Amino acid sequence: MVRLQDIHEARDRIRRHIHRTPLLRSALLGAMAGVRLTVKAESFQKTGSFKARGIYNRVALLGPEARARGVIGISAGNAAAALAWAGKAEGVAVTVVMPAHANPTKVEATRAYGADVILHGDVFGAFAKMEELRDREGYTLVHPFNDEAVIAGHGTAGLEILEDVPDADLVLVPTGGGGLLSGISVAIKSLRPATRVIGVEPEGAACVRAAIDAGRPVRLDRITTIADGLAPPATGDIVLEHVRAFTDDVVTVQDRHILDAAVLIMTRTKLVVEPSGAAGLAALVAGRIAVQPNDSVVIVASGGNADAQKMRSGL
């Protein structure tokens, strides 16, 4: 299990390489739910998403042999760009497998950071291709979420949240594989147990909720969501262990609420967020979360790598 000490050590390790992102108060958005609302703007993070935190921490901890062989990753976009960026910073060769339909903006960013990008199949096929290449070439897998070092790095966002909003009653975390949710939950529950931490998944890609209900990671048969950053085929055993121990709940929201929330964030706060980054606000505005009047609520805007064409066309 990741400990608070691991998160503090991760912060010391990565602080020179990442941004301390701002927490921005939005009275207008808060008034819609009758709460005091703050947005953790991870859209301002290196590579445009929170992924830079945990991925850099993992790469920085690689030993000499793993560095020499190179690493491989699997991602629809944000983890891919973060791994390419971290590899470039640490002098490690990076190969990333991405689904053929991956966000072109994220594909271009990953290549621009110097990674060898392989586009292959759907998300299920991409995972299989990654495993084939890892085994054949001897690459070290940097998992996008099911890894203690990745979770610890993501937990640094939780430290910043409580430092800037020490009276937070509720933190809403967009959830795909669950690495960010795990890290933030460990940090916040270790420092302020009374603060609720709730993950938010798209209804069409709710792998963490499915794992909680089944008591084990469950591979989804089908994934349908506009939020490509929240759409892995399954969570992992490490994530599930942390979520069960530290997270209060995981809820789901419909894509139409996610898109509406993304528009609200952009028009009301002037932040550009991808659909994944709007999941927390979507759950709040759609009434999926019980709150008390004037609660202090933090939503994590997890990324800003929006595909303008996809958002324009909607669902």
Describe the structure in brief:
The chain is of the alpha/beta class and 315 residues long.
Describe the structure.
The protein is α/β, with parallel strands linked by helices and 315 residues long. The chain folds into 2 domains: 4-49 and 148-313, Rossmann fold (3-Layer(aba) Sandwich); 52-141, Rossmann fold (3-Layer(aba) Sandwich), CATH 3.40.50. The protein has 14 helices and 10 strands. It has helices at residues 4-14, 27-33, 51-60, 64-69, 78-90, 104-112, 123-137, 148-164, 179-191, 207-214, 237-246, 255-269, 279-285, 308-313, and strands at residues 23-25, 36-41, 71-74, 94-98, 116-119, 140-141, 170-174, 196-202, 249-253, 296-301. Strands 1-2-10-7-8-9 form a 6-stranded mixed beta sheet, with helices on both faces. Strands 5-4-3-6 form a 4-stranded parallel beta sheet. Helix 9 (179-191) links the parallel strand 7 and strand 8 (196-202). Helix 1 (4-14) packs across helix 8 (148-164).
Structural features:
single chain, 315 residues, alpha/beta, Rossmann fold, 2 domains, six-stranded mixed β-sheet, four-stranded parallel β-sheet, 10 strands
Q: What is the CA-atom radius of gyration, in angstroms?
A: 18 Å
Return the CATH class of the largest domain: Alpha Beta
Task: Tell me what the CATH architecture of the largest domain is.
Answer: 3-Layer(aba) Sandwich
Strand order of the largest sheet: 1-2-10-7-8-9
Task: List the topology elements.
Elements: H1 4-14, E1 23-25, H2 27-33, E2 36-41, H3 51-60, H4 64-69, E3 71-74, H5 78-90, E4 94-98, H6 104-112, E5 116-119, H7 123-137, E6 140-141, H8 148-164, E7 170-174, H9 179-191, E8 196-202, H10 207-214, H11 237-246, E9 249-253, H12 255-269, H13 279-285, E10 296-301, H14 308-313
Parallel strand pairs: 2-10, 3-4, 3-6, 4-5, 7-8, 7-10, 8-9
Antiparallel strand pairs: 1-2
